[in-house]
Input
Amino acid sequence: MTTVTAPLAAGSTTAAGLPAGRVNVADRVLQKTAERAAAEIIGVDAKNVHVEIVSARDTAVLRVTTPFPVPRLDDTAAVKAATPVLEAARAAQGELQTRLTRLFGREVSRVDLTISGASAPQRKRVL
Output
C-alpha cells in the first residue's frame, strides 16, 4: 500500500508543512495492525483473527475472519446479560472501520466480518 504526496523540489514541504515525497507501508504491516485492532475490539486472541485488505489508491476494504466471544452457556446470568451476537458484531465493524481509518490515514470504506466460531471464557480450575 502506498501513500503519495505531490512531488516538490528536494527539501520542500507541502502546504501542511509536511515533507514532500512518498511513504510506502508494507501490506503486511497494515494486515498485522488490523488483526491486532480487531482482536482488541472484538475481545479475542489476535492469533485467531485473520484480515485480508483490498486497497485502492484512496480507500481500503477489509475482510475480517474471527471467532466471536460468547458467555459460557451454563452461566445463565451472563447469557441473559450478553449483547446479541449480531448487534455486537455490527458495533465491532463500525468501531474497527473508524479506528483503522484513523490509523491507516486513508478511508476504510467497508469492513466485512465473518464469524468463524465462538470463543467462550475458560473455566477456572480450583485446586
Summary: The first strand starts at residue 2 and ends at 4.
